[in-house]
Write a structure and sequence with these properties.
Order of helices and strands: HEEEEHEEHHHEEE
Number of strands: 9
Number of helices: 5
Bound molecules: flavin mononucleotide
Largest sheet: 9 strands, antiparallel
Shape: elongated
Strand content: 35-45%
Structural class: alpha+beta
Length: 195
C-alpha cells in the first residue's frame, strides 16, 4: 500500500505537469521481462493511482501480457520534461490483474471506437497488411451494431503494487535531488541518494 505522503507527492507532481501543458502527463514507460529475463519497454497510460498502486490497461495476450504472466515484476518511469527543472518518478513492484468487474467499469468509459479496437486488435501479433486490420474493425463494428460493446475477455487492467518509488528532481549543474522510498513489508522508509 502506498502511503498518503507518497500518493500526495505523486498526485501533486502529475497535476502540476498537466497544468503546465505536458501533452501526455500520464504516459509512463513500462518495463517487463520474459521468462528468459529479456527486458522490454513501452509506453502505456496511467489510468488511476490509489493506495493499492498504479493502474493501466492493455491486452492480456500481448507481448507484455505474456511477460507479466511469466514475471509480474515491473518497472515504471514517468518523465515530465517541462515540470520545474525536469522531474522523473521511478516505480518498481509487481503487476497484478484487476478484477474483471474493475476492468469492465473502465472499459465502459472508453470511446466506442476504442472498444471496437480492443476486439479488432490482436496486439503484438503479426499483421499481414493494414487491410486485414480494417476488415477486423469492420467485422466487429457490424457484430456490435446497435448494442453496447462488451469488454473482450483478453483485455483488462493491471495494478502495479509498488515496493520502490523514487522522486527525482532536476537541478542546476546536475546536482539533482533524489528521494528514494522503499517498502519493507507494510512500512515505507526514505533516504536521499547521490544524483
Ligand atoms: C503515448 C502512448 C500511450 C500508449 N498507451 C497504451 C496503453 O495504455 N495500453 C497499451 O496496451 N498500449 C499503449 N500504447 C502502445 C504501447 O506502447 C505498445 O505499442 C503496445 O501496448 C504493445 O506492446 P507489447 O507488444 O510490448 O505488448 C501506448 C503508446 C503510446 C506512444
Amino acid at each position: 500500500m502506498l502511503t498518503s505522503e507518497i500518493l500526495n507527492t505523486f498526485r501533486q507532481l502529475l497535476d502540476e505537469a498537466a497544468a503546465g501543458g505536458d501533452p501526455e502527463p500520464t504516459a509512463m514507460n513500462l518495463s517487463s521481462a520474459d521468462a528468459a529475463g529479456r527486458v522490454s519497454s513501452r509506453i502505456v497510460l496511467l489510468k488511476g493511482v490509489d493506495e493499492r498502486g498504479f493502474r493501466f490497461f492493455t491486452n492480456y495476450e500481448s507481448d507484455k501480457g505474456t511477460q507479466l504472466q511469466a514475471h509480474p515484476q515491473v518497472a515504471l518511469c514517468f518523465h515530465w520534461k517541462t515540470l520545474r527543472e525536469g522531474v522523473q518518478v521511478r516505480v518498481e513492484g509487481v503487476a497484478r490483474r484487476l478484477l474483471p468487474e474493475e476492468s469492465d467499469a473502465y472499459f465502459a468509459t472508453r470511446a466506442r471506437g476504442s472498444q471496437v479496437g480492443a476486439w479488432a486488435s490482436l496486439q503484438s501479433q503479426t499483421l499481414p497488411d493494414r487491410a486485414s486490420f480494417e476488415q477486423r474493425v469492420a467485422h466487429f463494428e457490424h457484430e456490435f451494431e446497435g448494442r453496447e460493446v462488451p469488454r473482450p475477455p483478453h483485455w483488462g487492467g493491471y495494478v502495479v503494487e509498488a515496493d520502490l518509488v523514487e522522486f527525482w528532481y532536476g537541478a542546476k549543474y546536475r546536482l539533482h535531488e533524489r528521494v528514494r522510498w522503499n517498502r519493507h513489508g507494510q512500512t515505507w522508509t526514505y533516504r536521499l541518494l547521490y544524483p
